[in-house]
Amino acid sequence: MKRHHGMKVEIGKSMGMPALFKGIGLKATAQRQEILQTFYDNEGPMTADQIAAKMSKVDMVTLYRTLETFVEYRLIKKLNLSTGITFYEISDTHHHHIVCSKCNLIEEVDSCEIGTLVPHSKKFSFISEHSLEFFGICKSCAKS
Amino acid sequence: MKRHHGMKVEIGKSMGMPALFKGIGLKATAQRQEILQTFYDNEGPMTADQIAAKMSKVDMVTLYRTLETFVEYRLIKKLNLSTGITFYEISDTHHHHIVCSKCNLIEEVDSCEIGTLVPHSKKFSFISEHSLEFFGICKSCAKS
DNA sequence: AGCTAAATGCAACTTACTTGCATTTAGAAA
DNA sequence: TTTCTAAATGCAAGTAAGTTGCATTTAGCT
Asked: Closest nucleotide to B26's CA, by C1' atom?
Protein backbone atom coordinates (compact mmCIF):
# COMPACT_ATOMS: atom_id res chain seq x y z
CA MET A 1 0.00 0.00 0.00
CA LYS A 2 1.35 3.37 -1.00
CA ARG A 3 0.20 6.66 0.39
CA HIS A 4 0.76 9.68 -1.78
CA HIS A 5 -0.26 13.31 -2.16
CA GLY A 6 -3.98 13.88 -1.96
CA MET A 7 -4.46 10.57 -0.21
CA LYS A 8 -3.23 11.38 3.27
CA VAL A 9 -4.49 9.30 6.14
CA GLU A 10 -6.22 11.94 8.24
CA ILE A 11 -7.31 10.10 11.33
CA GLY A 12 -6.81 13.34 13.20
CA LYS A 13 -9.51 14.97 11.15
CA SER A 14 -11.81 12.01 10.61
CA MET A 15 -12.23 11.20 14.27
CA GLY A 16 -10.53 14.12 16.02
CA MET A 17 -7.15 13.68 17.54
CA PRO A 18 -8.23 14.62 21.08
CA ALA A 19 -10.89 11.88 20.86
CA LEU A 20 -8.30 9.42 19.62
CA PHE A 21 -6.02 10.16 22.58
CA LYS A 22 -8.89 10.14 25.02
CA GLY A 23 -10.00 6.78 23.67
CA ILE A 24 -6.71 5.25 24.73
CA GLY A 25 -6.48 7.20 27.99
CA LEU A 26 -3.76 9.69 27.04
CA LYS A 27 -3.82 13.45 27.45
CA ALA A 28 -4.15 15.26 24.13
CA THR A 29 -1.21 17.59 24.57
CA ALA A 30 -0.06 19.97 21.83
CA GLN A 31 3.22 18.04 21.55
CA ARG A 32 1.52 14.67 21.07
CA GLN A 33 -0.82 16.08 18.48
CA GLU A 34 1.97 17.64 16.49
CA ILE A 35 4.09 14.49 16.64
CA LEU A 36 1.22 12.31 15.47
CA GLN A 37 0.34 14.84 12.76
CA THR A 38 3.94 14.61 11.54
CA PHE A 39 3.38 10.90 10.94
CA TYR A 40 0.13 11.65 9.09
CA ASP A 41 1.85 14.25 6.92
CA ASN A 42 4.96 12.24 6.04
CA GLU A 43 4.97 8.75 4.64
CA GLY A 44 7.70 6.24 5.30
CA PRO A 45 9.99 5.53 8.24
CA MET A 46 11.69 8.44 10.03
CA THR A 47 14.34 8.74 12.73
CA ALA A 48 13.68 10.81 15.85
CA ASP A 49 15.90 13.55 14.40
CA GLN A 50 14.03 13.56 11.11
CA ILE A 51 10.72 13.86 12.95
CA ALA A 52 12.05 16.74 15.05
CA ALA A 53 13.28 18.51 11.90
CA LYS A 54 9.78 18.43 10.42
CA MET A 55 8.22 19.91 13.55
CA SER A 56 8.01 23.48 14.78
CA LYS A 57 10.11 22.83 17.90
CA VAL A 58 10.18 19.92 20.23
CA ASP A 59 12.27 18.84 23.17
CA MET A 60 14.06 15.62 22.25
CA VAL A 61 13.24 14.08 25.61
CA THR A 62 9.54 14.65 25.04
CA LEU A 63 9.88 13.31 21.52
CA TYR A 64 11.62 10.09 22.60
CA ARG A 65 9.14 9.61 25.43
CA THR A 66 6.18 10.24 23.15
CA LEU A 67 7.51 7.85 20.51
CA GLU A 68 7.82 5.13 23.15
CA THR A 69 4.25 5.84 24.28
CA PHE A 70 2.97 5.70 20.69
CA VAL A 71 4.75 2.38 20.13
CA GLU A 72 3.26 1.04 23.35
CA TYR A 73 -0.25 2.04 22.22
CA ARG A 74 0.42 0.67 18.72
CA LEU A 75 -0.01 4.02 16.97
CA ILE A 76 3.45 3.64 15.43
CA LYS A 77 6.05 0.91 14.96
CA LYS A 78 9.75 0.84 15.71
CA LEU A 79 12.14 -0.37 13.02
CA ASN A 80 15.72 -1.49 13.49
CA LEU A 81 17.36 -1.50 10.11
CA SER A 82 21.01 -1.93 9.20
CA THR A 83 22.29 1.36 10.51
CA GLY A 84 21.72 0.91 14.20
CA ILE A 85 19.53 4.02 14.39
CA THR A 86 15.89 3.49 15.21
CA PHE A 87 13.24 4.41 12.65
CA TYR A 88 9.57 4.95 13.40
CA GLU A 89 6.62 4.61 11.06
CA ILE A 90 2.88 4.74 11.37
CA SER A 91 1.16 1.41 12.13
CA ASP A 92 -1.03 0.90 9.11
CA THR A 93 -0.32 -1.95 6.78
CA HIS A 94 2.01 -4.81 7.56
CA HIS A 95 4.96 -4.64 5.20
CA HIS A 96 8.73 -4.89 4.94
CA HIS A 97 11.49 -2.65 3.62
CA ILE A 98 14.14 -2.36 1.01
CA VAL A 99 17.10 -0.25 2.11
CA CYS A 100 19.85 1.31 0.03
CA SER A 101 23.23 0.39 1.54
CA LYS A 102 24.69 3.63 0.26
CA CYS A 103 22.17 6.43 0.90
CA ASN A 104 19.85 4.61 3.33
CA LEU A 105 16.81 5.28 1.14
CA ILE A 106 13.99 3.13 2.48
CA GLU A 107 11.15 1.83 0.33
CA GLU A 108 8.21 -0.26 1.34
CA VAL A 109 7.71 -3.81 0.12
CA ASP A 110 3.98 -4.49 0.19
CA SER A 111 3.69 -8.23 -0.02
CA CYS A 112 4.37 -10.47 2.90
CA GLU A 113 4.60 -14.17 2.27
CA ILE A 114 6.50 -14.77 5.45
CA GLY A 115 3.67 -16.87 6.80
CA THR A 116 5.00 -19.68 4.65
CA LEU A 117 8.28 -19.56 6.59
CA VAL A 118 6.88 -19.59 10.08
CA PRO A 119 6.98 -23.32 11.04
CA HIS A 120 10.08 -22.23 12.93
CA SER A 121 7.67 -20.94 15.52
CA LYS A 122 7.82 -24.42 17.05
CA LYS A 123 11.14 -23.43 18.53
CA PHE A 124 9.50 -20.66 20.49
CA SER A 125 6.36 -20.53 22.52
CA PHE A 126 5.07 -17.99 20.06
CA ILE A 127 6.26 -15.66 17.37
CA SER A 128 4.84 -12.19 17.79
CA GLU A 129 6.87 -10.22 15.30
CA HIS A 130 9.11 -10.67 12.34
CA SER A 131 11.22 -8.37 10.27
CA LEU A 132 12.41 -8.82 6.73
CA GLU A 133 14.69 -6.24 5.19
CA PHE A 134 16.38 -6.19 1.83
CA PHE A 135 19.59 -4.26 1.32
CA GLY A 136 21.11 -3.19 -1.96
CA ILE A 137 21.97 -0.16 -4.04
CA CYS A 138 19.07 1.96 -5.22
CA LYS A 139 18.78 3.05 -8.84
CA SER A 140 19.87 6.61 -8.18
CA CYS A 141 22.96 5.54 -6.22
CA ALA A 142 23.83 3.02 -8.93
CA LYS A 143 23.95 5.85 -11.49
CA SER A 144 26.41 8.01 -9.54
CA MET B 1 23.64 -25.83 10.27
CA LYS B 2 24.47 -26.13 13.93
CA ARG B 3 27.94 -26.11 15.35
CA HIS B 4 28.41 -27.83 18.68
CA HIS B 5 31.11 -29.18 20.99
CA GLY B 6 33.64 -31.36 19.25
CA MET B 7 32.74 -29.89 15.90
CA LYS B 8 34.45 -26.51 16.07
CA VAL B 9 35.36 -24.79 12.84
CA GLU B 10 39.11 -24.60 13.16
CA ILE B 11 40.21 -22.62 10.15
CA GLY B 12 42.96 -21.19 12.31
CA LYS B 13 44.43 -24.65 12.71
CA SER B 14 43.56 -26.16 9.36
CA MET B 15 45.25 -23.48 7.27
CA GLY B 16 47.13 -21.41 9.84
CA MET B 17 45.81 -18.08 10.92
CA PRO B 18 48.89 -16.10 9.86
CA ALA B 19 48.48 -17.60 6.36
CA LEU B 20 44.81 -16.68 6.37
CA PHE B 21 45.59 -13.04 7.23
CA LYS B 22 48.48 -12.91 4.82
CA GLY B 23 46.22 -14.23 2.08
CA ILE B 24 43.98 -11.20 2.43
CA GLY B 25 46.82 -8.74 2.98
CA LEU B 26 46.42 -8.13 6.70
CA LYS B 27 49.08 -8.30 9.39
CA ALA B 28 48.63 -11.30 11.67
CA THR B 29 48.77 -9.44 14.97
CA ALA B 30 48.20 -11.15 18.29
CA GLN B 31 44.99 -9.15 18.77
CA ARG B 32 43.52 -10.13 15.41
CA GLN B 33 44.34 -13.78 16.00
CA GLU B 34 42.76 -13.81 19.43
CA ILE B 35 39.63 -12.01 18.18
CA LEU B 36 39.20 -14.42 15.29
CA GLN B 37 39.87 -17.39 17.59
CA THR B 38 37.09 -16.13 19.85
CA PHE B 39 34.70 -16.50 16.91
CA TYR B 40 35.99 -20.03 16.24
CA ASP B 41 35.56 -20.97 19.90
CA ASN B 42 32.09 -19.52 20.43
CA GLU B 43 29.11 -20.19 18.24
CA GLY B 44 26.32 -17.71 17.67
CA PRO B 45 26.14 -13.92 17.45
CA MET B 46 28.03 -11.84 20.04
CA THR B 47 28.18 -8.14 20.87
CA ALA B 48 31.52 -6.33 21.06
CA ASP B 49 31.29 -6.42 24.86
CA GLN B 50 30.58 -10.15 24.87
CA ILE B 51 33.59 -10.77 22.65
CA ALA B 52 35.81 -8.66 24.90
CA ALA B 53 34.60 -10.57 27.95
CA LYS B 54 35.70 -13.87 26.41
CA MET B 55 39.19 -12.54 25.62
CA SER B 56 42.26 -12.15 27.80
CA LYS B 57 42.33 -8.35 27.50
CA VAL B 58 41.65 -6.12 24.55
CA ASP B 59 41.37 -2.40 23.96
CA MET B 60 37.80 -1.65 22.85
CA VAL B 61 39.06 0.66 20.10
CA THR B 62 41.17 -2.14 18.65
CA LEU B 63 38.26 -4.52 18.97
CA TYR B 64 35.82 -2.21 17.16
CA ARG B 65 38.36 -1.47 14.44
CA THR B 66 39.21 -5.15 14.02
CA LEU B 67 35.53 -6.11 13.82
CA GLU B 68 35.02 -3.52 11.06
CA THR B 69 38.04 -4.92 9.21
CA PHE B 70 36.76 -8.49 9.57
CA VAL B 71 33.35 -7.44 8.23
CA GLU B 72 35.02 -5.68 5.32
CA TYR B 73 36.99 -8.83 4.47
CA ARG B 74 33.91 -11.02 4.96
CA LEU B 75 35.38 -13.03 7.83
CA ILE B 76 32.40 -12.08 9.98
CA LYS B 77 28.95 -10.53 9.53
CA LYS B 78 27.27 -7.67 11.32
CA LEU B 79 23.74 -8.16 12.62
CA ASN B 80 21.30 -5.46 13.65
CA LEU B 81 18.54 -7.11 15.60
CA SER B 82 15.72 -5.53 17.56
CA THR B 83 17.75 -4.17 20.43
CA GLY B 84 19.77 -1.58 18.56
CA ILE B 85 23.09 -3.11 19.65
CA THR B 86 25.24 -4.64 16.94
CA PHE B 87 25.96 -8.34 16.98
CA TYR B 88 28.76 -10.07 15.08
CA GLU B 89 28.94 -13.67 13.94
CA ILE B 90 31.26 -15.75 11.83
CA SER B 91 30.50 -15.81 8.08
CA ASP B 92 29.82 -19.44 7.45
CA THR B 93 26.36 -20.53 6.46
CA HIS B 94 23.67 -18.16 5.32
CA HIS B 95 20.86 -18.19 7.85
CA HIS B 96 18.45 -16.03 9.81
CA HIS B 97 17.60 -15.60 13.47
CA ILE B 98 14.87 -16.01 15.98
CA VAL B 99 15.12 -13.60 18.89
CA CYS B 100 13.42 -13.70 22.27
CA SER B 101 11.78 -10.32 22.97
CA LYS B 102 12.28 -10.84 26.68
CA CYS B 103 15.77 -12.27 27.27
CA ASN B 104 17.28 -11.58 23.81
CA LEU B 105 18.20 -15.22 23.32
CA ILE B 106 19.19 -15.65 19.68
CA GLU B 107 18.79 -18.91 17.79
CA GLU B 108 19.68 -19.70 14.23
CA VAL B 109 17.08 -20.52 11.60
CA ASP B 110 18.78 -22.68 8.99
CA SER B 111 16.44 -22.58 6.05
CA CYS B 112 16.24 -19.62 3.75
CA GLU B 113 13.48 -19.53 1.21
CA ILE B 114 13.77 -15.81 0.75
CA GLY B 115 14.83 -16.29 -2.84
CA THR B 116 11.17 -16.77 -3.63
CA LEU B 117 10.44 -13.25 -2.41
CA VAL B 118 13.11 -11.40 -4.33
CA PRO B 119 11.23 -10.17 -7.44
CA HIS B 120 11.20 -6.91 -5.46
CA SER B 121 14.78 -6.56 -6.61
CA LYS B 122 13.37 -4.83 -9.71
CA LYS B 123 12.94 -1.76 -7.58
CA PHE B 124 16.66 -1.60 -6.91
CA SER B 125 19.61 -2.04 -9.19
CA PHE B 126 20.56 -5.08 -7.17
CA ILE B 127 19.90 -6.68 -3.86
CA SER B 128 23.09 -7.66 -2.07
CA GLU B 129 21.80 -8.58 1.34
CA HIS B 130 18.65 -9.39 3.18
CA SER B 131 17.78 -9.97 6.77
CA LEU B 132 14.89 -11.87 8.22
CA GLU B 133 14.40 -11.98 11.95
CA PHE B 134 11.64 -13.52 14.01
CA PHE B 135 10.78 -12.16 17.44
CA GLY B 136 8.80 -13.89 20.11
CA ILE B 137 9.07 -15.37 23.58
CA CYS B 138 11.35 -18.37 23.99
CA LYS B 139 10.17 -21.47 25.84
CA SER B 140 12.18 -20.76 28.97
CA CYS B 141 10.86 -17.18 29.23
CA ALA B 142 7.32 -18.40 28.63
CA LYS B 143 7.59 -20.67 31.70
CA SER B 144 8.67 -17.93 34.10
C1' DA C 1 69.19 -5.91 12.10
C1' DG C 2 66.84 -1.85 10.16
C1' DC C 3 62.98 0.31 8.01
C1' DT C 4 58.32 1.64 7.24
C1' DA C 5 53.56 1.24 6.59
C1' DA C 6 50.18 -0.83 9.29
C1' DA C 7 48.23 -1.56 13.63
C1' DT C 8 47.59 -0.50 18.40
C1' DG C 9 46.10 2.06 22.53
C1' DC C 10 45.24 6.00 25.23
C1' DA C 11 42.30 10.16 25.69
C1' DA C 12 38.84 12.71 24.26
C1' DC C 13 34.72 13.12 21.44
C1' DT C 14 30.15 12.11 19.35
C1' DT C 15 25.65 10.31 18.75
C1' DA C 16 21.47 8.29 20.23
C1' DC C 17 19.05 7.81 23.91
C1' DT C 18 17.79 7.83 29.20
C1' DT C 19 17.08 9.42 34.02
C1' DG C 20 16.10 12.64 37.79
C1' DC C 21 13.60 16.22 39.18
C1' DA C 22 11.31 20.64 39.31
C1' DT C 23 7.66 23.03 36.59
C1' DT C 24 3.62 23.10 33.82
C1' DT C 25 -0.78 21.61 32.02
C1' DA C 26 -5.01 18.69 30.58
C1' DG C 27 -9.04 17.70 31.93
C1' DA C 28 -11.99 15.88 35.82
C1' DA C 29 -14.26 17.60 39.98
C1' DA C 30 -16.27 21.14 42.75
C1' DT D 1 -15.15 28.75 35.75
C1' DT D 2 -12.06 28.11 39.15
C1' DT D 3 -9.53 24.43 41.67
C1' DC D 4 -6.94 20.35 41.97
C1' DT D 5 -3.93 16.64 40.77
C1' DA D 6 -1.94 13.07 38.18
C1' DA D 7 0.14 13.16 33.93
C1' DA D 8 3.20 15.28 30.90
C1' DT D 9 6.87 18.38 29.79
C1' DG D 10 11.56 20.31 29.67
C1' DC D 11 15.96 21.36 31.42
C1' DA D 12 20.35 19.37 33.03
C1' DA D 13 23.07 15.77 33.56
C1' DG D 14 24.21 10.93 32.64
C1' DT D 15 25.01 6.60 29.96
C1' DA D 16 26.29 3.26 26.40
C1' DA D 17 28.04 2.19 22.02
C1' DG D 18 30.95 3.44 18.95
C1' DT D 19 34.46 6.93 16.61
C1' DT D 20 38.48 10.09 15.88
C1' DG D 21 43.11 12.09 16.59
C1' DC D 22 47.51 11.20 17.44
C1' DA D 23 51.68 9.36 19.47
C1' DT D 24 53.77 4.75 20.11
C1' DT D 25 54.61 0.06 18.79
C1' DT D 26 55.13 -3.86 15.76
C1' DA D 27 54.80 -7.20 11.63
C1' DG D 28 57.15 -8.55 8.25
C1' DC D 29 59.49 -6.91 4.19
C1' DT D 30 64.54 -5.86 2.69
From this structure: C6
